Amino acid sequence: MDYARYAALYPDGPDESAFDRLRWEARRVMDRATTGLDGLRKLEAAPPVNEQDREAVERCEAALVHLLWQADQAESLVSRDDGTVTGRVVTAVTAGSESVSFAAPAVSAQDREARCRETVERYLAGVRDANGVNLLYMGLYPVAP
User: pTM value?
Assistant: First the structure.
């Protein structure tokens, strides 16, 4: 997938330089999810040939890029070591004791991983590689690549 295709699907996403980094990470997520016990990387060894299946893989990659970008954005909205806060959303201000409350948008590593897994499952469930093997099948590859 190139940046133009991604931007057509998600016009509010990252710029092209961030896209390249996030695309690499999204592909790693997809590889982990589609590599079985034998270590065969199905997306590399036998990418889908069916048009709908290829589209599902491309849209999964785009959705992961967008998800990872949103998680990066949430993580960047944190307090600095010097006590200042950058880009946080103020939820409450109390003048008497000078209290300010901020929304907590940060995403934990576990939440990020779970959301990635859900995205992969949503897009790639039932999608088959060129040999007819389900991409999410985790057993030994039944066909000689």
Answer: 0.79
